Amino acid sequence: MKPEPPKIPQATTKRLPLYYRFLQSFHNAGHKRVSSQELSDAMKIDSATIRRDFSHFGALGKKGYGYDVANLLEFFRKTLDQDEAANVALIGVGSLGTAFLKYNFQKNHNTKIVVAFDTKAPVEGMMKSDIPVFNPSVMEEKLLEYGIELVICTVPSRSAQEVADRLAKTEITGILNFTPVRLNVPDTIRVHTIDLSVEVQTLIYLIRNKSIE
């Protein structure tokens, strides 16, 4: 996968796919240009934040005119490598993993789940939601066979580091970790952890302390 552009704040990087999604909506609605305030109203993000994010990439708009929707959409498409699909593997086909298989990303994004692994699956594989699911005993060879760059990990917490240790010996470069475990991996692998319980607790705290920005 293409590395993140240098000197771009992580918070800005996380918003780039959102900008791309909303610009697609404006483009599909026939808008030729859009202002930072219009994007702000649609995305519920402060317009100053949007202008600051865009400034990291140079002059994307014109004062008094706003942003050309088609040009901006093309810029973010290239920035996010939307033309180059990334093959994704799912490890752990429980309740959350099954939801991922049913949704899959290929309908709306440049990524798609092409193979999955679960301890209940046979070595020879089985089909689930049109995706082949194999036993983890053949994980390394199948990751190579399917050209996997990114892995979504939804295994039980007790198995997370063991899985990460095996992945560290493969060619994958990213793990989207849905376990609460902080994985130890080599610098060649980027880990993005989403702890759903922490996210819920954070939201509860924020809605009960509305004075916090």
Automatic annotation (TrEMBL):
Gene: rex
Domain CoA-binding span(s) in chain numbering: 81-182
GO biological process, one term: negative regulation of DNA-templated transcription
Chain coiled-coil ranges: none
Species for this entry: Psychrobacillus glaciei
The protein's name: Redox-sensing transcriptional repressor Rex
Chief localisation class: cytoplasm
Subunit record text: Homodimer.
UniProt family annotation: Belongs to the transcriptional regulatory Rex family.
Cellular localisation: Cytoplasm
Gene3D superfamilies, A to Z: NAD(P)-binding Rossmann-like Domain, Winged helix-like DNA-binding domain superfamily/Winged helix DNA-binding domain
